[in-house]
Task: structure prediction
Amino acid sequence: MDAIATQGLFKTYRRWLRRTGQAALDGVDLTVPQGSAFGLIGPNGAGKTTFIKVLLGIVRLDQGQVRVLGGAAEDPKVRARIGYLPERLHLPAAWKPAEFLHSVARMKGVRVTGPELSAVLERVGIAQAKDRAIGGYSKGMKQRLGLGAALLGKPELLILDEPTDGIDPLGRVEIRHILSEELQRGATLFLNSHLLSETERICDRIAILGGGKVLRQGTLQELRQVGVCWRARFQLDAGLALPVDGAADATAQATAQATVQMRTAALQAAGFVPAGDRHRIVVNDAAGLNAALDQARAAGALLTELVREEKALEDVLAEAMEAA
Amino acid sequence: MKTWAVTLDLLREARSRKWFLFLGGAITLGLLVLGLSLKLEVVDGALAASRFFGKSLDNPMMSADVALGAVFSVASQFIFYGGMLFGIFSCSDFAPKLLSPGRIEHLLALPVRRWELLAGTFLGVLILALAGAAYGSVGLTLIFGVKAGVWTVRPLLSAMLAVVGFIPVYAMMLTAAVFARSAALSSGVGGVVFALGVVTSYRDTLLPMFSPGLGRFSFNALTVLMPRLARLAELSSQLAGAKPVSATVALSLIGGCLAFGAGALMVGIWRFEERDF
Result:
């Protein structure tokens, strides 16, 4: 079963008495398998936060269907099985962290004891500050407390909007560890983060959202395979009769230069782009790569080195945005 | 139902606010000053003499409960109007804070229905008003009960009427906050409802002063549905002072306040259910 399944989601924010508005979601179809770690990435204004709010019933849809954990987002019984950390969590400043967690637990209908709350604070790394009012917490500490609240009641689905925002690098490692424990427990993780390296490390499936549309989605491997980049080194003067012993032969030199220029043009025509002493090419599959290589070799260029470049997630995102 | 959980959160938040600490302190101080400085001599149920800060107060000898009736009457007016104004200002930012970005999203993602959030907030504010009014009126009753032997629940009942009067005012404040998240707007709306509630109490007297036409129509339209708050304050004062009270009038005034409050709250809930956050 899918933890999240959406079909044709449309949402436009309109001002009062105005018919036109800003389209935040423009036909979003997305499925998140249960037990997976799913990352949603995209530039600012892509509609990521709106999408999350739609999943939780915080924003009303104009059109489309949403199923979360097999039910409707508006159903409190479904929401009881979800842990959510919003992007900007506003916490009551005068409260102690245990009071806040107790309040969330009560709303979730989860019975928790004092030691259990202490264990949650310990787990998210703020046990040492449990006697301080939340108002005195740093941004990272508040974020950790928000994560602790999301983890209460062992939710089946964790929806985290920028969970590591404001958290130091060591803290991020701790958060990653907690999230991997949750995944091992069987929870589904839905992560929205602008830190692509975080998403890359935690998530096994990714969707790229841009302009309110899903531009690409799949496993990290699948996304990287779209438009794979290869780096090749060619010997362009292979087989040419070059002047011997420094004896100048103007005609032979001119012929060789013309041939090298012709081969360079052929490489560019095949899709290779000069990059230093090598050439780069982006192809969708092995057949495309072989066709380009055949074209280069037919022109007389000798392939001496071929290296596949591992694409970073930011390259995938940039390509998707460019294509869109 | 999670309404009670929302209410408890609001009460916990109120506990940390200086406004309410100030109110509790002020009531306690007032009661202490009265309790420690006022000396009443009651002989055979009649008030013979009163001393306040050691000075004799010039009062004719009369039955203790009659003499205290006037005191309770004045106290009830103070509780009604003072409490109302205090409530309007001190409770104006509960709803805007509930709806603040980062908090409302978190609350709406919890298994709580939207209407429960508003109902819980409303209930919490009512409990605060009830607690303040009850604390003051029960304290007053205890002091005069001990000093004069007059034990009555009338001040408490009168204070409850003040809470009833606050229901339509806060319902409108809450609804205003749902439409536009602003503590200033919320307290402004509360002030307008309160003022109109006072004016409406004298509607029958004021209406003939408007010449027939747009002026009279506007005044009529503006006040036709408003709760009659000044009349309720009078009723509260009469009840506290042990004066006769018409049950029909009392029920009509209380019913008017409850109906207006419920209507305003329904509008707020309707808007809250529709809104995106």
